[in-house]
Amino acid sequence: MSLTGKIGGIGIVRPYGDTTGDGRVQLSFTLPVPFGAETERARAEGAALQLAAKMGLDPAMVVHAKGMGPDFTFFIVYGRVSHVVDLSAVTVAEREFPVLPAAEVNLRIRSALGRKLVVVGACIGTDAHTVGIDAILNVKGHAGEKGLEYYREIRVVNMGSQVGVADLVARAEAERADAVLVSQVVTQRDAHLSNTREMAGAFRRELGEQRPLLVAGGPRFDPGAARDLGVDKIFGRGTTPSEVASYLVHALAPQEGAT
Amino acid sequence: MTGKLNLDPVIVHQARELARQAGQPVTELARTHTTVSVERAVLRLAGLDGADSDGMPWVNRLTDAIRESVGLEHGVALPAWDALLAGGYPDLRTLAVDAAAGLVKFRLPAGDDGDAARQAADRSVRKGISLIDARRAERDQMLAATSDPPMPWIYLIVATGDIYEDIPQAQAAAREGADVIAVIRSTGQSLLDYVPEGATREGYAGTYATQENFRLMRAALDDVSRELGRYVRLTNYASGLCMPEIAVLAGMQRLDMMLNDCMYGIIFRDINPVRTFIDQRFSRQVHARAGIVINTGEDNYLTTADAVDAAHTVVVSQLLNEYFGREAGLADSQLGLGHAFEINPEVPDSFLLELAHAQLIRELFPDAPLKYMPPTKHMTGNVFAGYLLDAFFNLAGLMTGQSILLIGMMTEGIHTPFLSDRDLALENVRYVRRAAGQLGASFRPEPDGFVAQRARQVLAEAIDLLRTIGSQGLLTAIAEGTFGVTKRPPDGGRGLDGVVQRAEGYFNPATSMLEAAEVAR
Questions:
Q1: Cβ A171 vs Cβ A159: under 8 Å
Q2: Distance CA B247, CA A231 (A)
Q3: What are phi and psi of A258, to 5 degrees?
């Protein structure tokens, strides 16, 4: 089999430098080795080449090496990679909903609801750790993304920490919340689970079918346990605001024509 | 440096006057109210530190106990020192321990007892102010013994979460050429209504601001300053719910610059506006005394709004920060007003627009050490394009005489910088400085050309906005979403329950000393 290109529509491919199948790649990295005297330099470059070879670059060439302080060297390496990519073996993770840019989220809300989407957020129970809910809600945001307050078409009511379930239900009703976000960091005696169940039960009891979308989040939640806890969605560690915003429009502002 | 844009001095004066009119009612609010953090700062100046076994600082315990018993309308000092004298306590810590256990009966002393308490409080707090004065003198000595690097200062960030990891990274950055080291705080610290204690090794995306962490880092940078013969400045954050206290700790540990914006916490952290303005004023009075340069946060507006459309909101915020800063006693040389290179590089003439904005701000605030922030919003993950954009940022900074350059990383938004990212970033700025450091002197935009016209347009828009703010009131303007994209009503947000209106006879020895110094200046 030729390794130089696609075969019959499905393909085995290699990186492309300037010729099909040349396998050329570039790479930069730092090694904790000195780059001072001549012998040190030769050793450093040898070390970089050894790493490149182990990464499948053969032949490899150190095109740039620079000492950074007394203990480190930075390298730029070009080389021919011996690996091939089998396109038929590429798997793409299916997502329940696509992550959308803020403008798209705003547009979807405007066209589907014709008004702002209202989100009420809180830390419930005795939990005073608002870091999670604030990272999702505050304009400041998290991981380089702005929080939900940044979205022009989302109105955020952040109730803060240690909010009682009854207060949360009353506020959600008064604000005509489309969605309620609760954050739970403290997990002593599984408080995050019992608090979330209690909250979901209260919304069902008080508002029945009219209840808002219920979303829980926190570092110790199992994202698969939504049904068990009586909520619509659970977000785990590392969730970003755009994921939450995208989920909200997926659930509450379906695209026209979508079923 | 001034006079490249033909700005009309009458219009510039008008802009300042409008900012003053907008800010004055808020200053009045700050003069007539106090907050739990202002009161805790008084106790910190008097030397109360440490925390109980739950990690809650004794300043919080004592302030809370006094508030529950006699309220804070008269300040914490009068009842605290009265109880100290009446109970024969050796120090505030012992008093705080008993107060937290509910063993102290506080009162508002009158007559001779009141005078005695006020005098004792004055003596204790004056020690804290004297310590801040001594630290300021120590900075001058360090500058004389080493050297003060020329501007623009190269500003680099460390943020490992562990102070003992931060230290070698900061020292390495200084050796690589950084003039200013900023230690980013742990996510969420701004919303804590207390200052954590001690050296900390766990933080999320940053390291807690604590007195001990301040001390450790300043000592490490003093070592490297002596080694390099160049004074390396240290920056942290006096923002969030504990602005006044962190300002005091910074003054006592000789930090050199502090992030301290008049509206950042309100807009971006949903901290109550009234709380913020009161805390801000006290913290700036402390910074003024300590010789600390504040860094304002206007760059943040451009990360949420479009950098062309919202250019004038940056100028408005700078004028307000200048008014509030000067009012609190800061000299122009302490006003590190912020702005940023955040225009979408796809926009035609984006570099000319950046030059117009940067030059406008340079000419509006000729004596302020302006802090220029690198691109973040349009750093896409294409590190090669990002490196080019950072070079243009460096060029704009040098051409327009910016004072403090926060050095951009080509991996912005991908990860906290690698050692090599930082090294490449410094190589970038060194090249631009070597190649074009003198370009500013030859840069003369045509009097009615694109750059000059754009600058005048932004100033005109700023004046329009200031007029609107002035007519509706700053708090209303904030409530209606004028800044950033959020509405922040004066009765909303965190920390409002920590605001207290001062009663007749309110006593705060620190405020008296800090304000007396302003009058004397």
A1: yes
A2: 44
A3: -80, 150
A100-125 average pLDDT score = 93
CB-CB contact of B129 with B285 (8 Å): no
Contact indicator for A156, A139 with CB cutoff of 8 Å: no
Asked if B282 and B38 count as a contact pair (C-beta separation under 8 A), the reply is yes
Spatial distance between the Cα atoms of B209 and B166, rounded to a whole number of angstroms? 12
Looking at the DSSP bridge assignments, the partners of residue B271 are B494
Phi-psi region of B41 (alpha: psi -120 to 50; beta: other; left: phi over 0): alpha
B133 near A CB under 8 A: no
Q: What are phi and psi of B161, to 5 degrees?
A: 95, -20
A152 CB neighbours in chain B (<8 A) are 485
What was the pLDDT predicted at B206? 86
Q: Is B100 exposed, middle or buried (0-12, 13-18, 19+ CB in 10 A)?
A: middle
Task: Report which secondary-structure segment, H or E, holds B69.
Answer: helix B58-70
Q: Where are the alpha helices (DSSP H) in B253-365?
A: 264-269, 273-290, 299-304, 311-327, 350-364
At residue A224 the predicted structure's pLDDT band, cuts being 50, 70 and 90, is confident
> Taking the complete model, does pTM exceed 0.90, yes or no?
no
Nearest CB to A139 within list B176, B267, B494? B267
Helix (H), strand (E) at residue B118: helix B111-145
Both structure tokens of B463: 């004046």
Strand order in the sheet with A10-13: A6-7, A10-13, A85-86
| Interfacial A residues in 176-195 facing B (CB < 8 Å) | none
Q: Which of residues 274-303 of B touch A (CB under 8 A)?
A: 303
Residue range B382-395, pLDDT digits in tens? 999 999 999 999 99
Q: Read off the DSSP letter of residue A128.
A: -
Put simply, the answer to whether A139 touches B204 (Cβ < 8 Å) is no
Name beta bridge partners: B234.
Answer: B181
> Does the annotation count B299 as an active-site position?
yes
Confidence band, pLDDT 50/70/90 cuts, at residue A127: low
Query: The complex's ipTM?
Result: 0.85
Instruction: Answer whether residue A132 shows pLDDT above 90.
Output: no
Q: Which two structure tokens, joined as six digits, stand for B184?
A: 């980013």
Secondary-structure percent of chain B, ordered helix, strand, coil, rounded to 5: 55, 10, 35
Q: Report the pLDDT averaged over residues B80-98.
A: 98
Dmax over Cα atoms in chain A, in whole Å? Answer: 78
Question: Which residues on adjacent β-strands are paired with residue B372?
Answer: B339, B405
CA A146 to chain centre: 13
Taking alpha carbons only, the member of A141, A168, A150, A136 closest to residue A244 is A136
Q: What CA dihedral angle connects A252, B270, B458 and B337, to 10 degrees?
A: -140
| Spatial distance between the Cα atoms of A37 and A68, rounded to a whole number of angstroms | 14
Q: What is the DSSP string of A121-176?
A: EEEBTT----HHHHHHHSTT-BTTB--GGGSTTEEEEE--SSB-HHHHHHHHHHTT
Cα A42 to Cα A34, A37, A48, A66, B59, distances in angstroms: 10, 9, 10, 12, 59
Q: Per this entry, what is the length of chain B?
A: 521
Q: Is the pLDDT at B1 greater than 60, yes or no?
A: no
Query: How much is the CA Rg of chain A, to the nearest whole Å?
Result: 26
| Nearest CA-CA partner of B201 in B162, B240, B148, B150 | B162
Identify which of B172, B420, B485 has the shortest CB distance to residue A74.
B420
| Two structure tokens written together for B68 | 């529950």
Give burial (CB, 10 Å; 0-12/13-18/19+) of B198. middle
Q: E strand or H helix at B145, and its extent?
A: helix B111-145
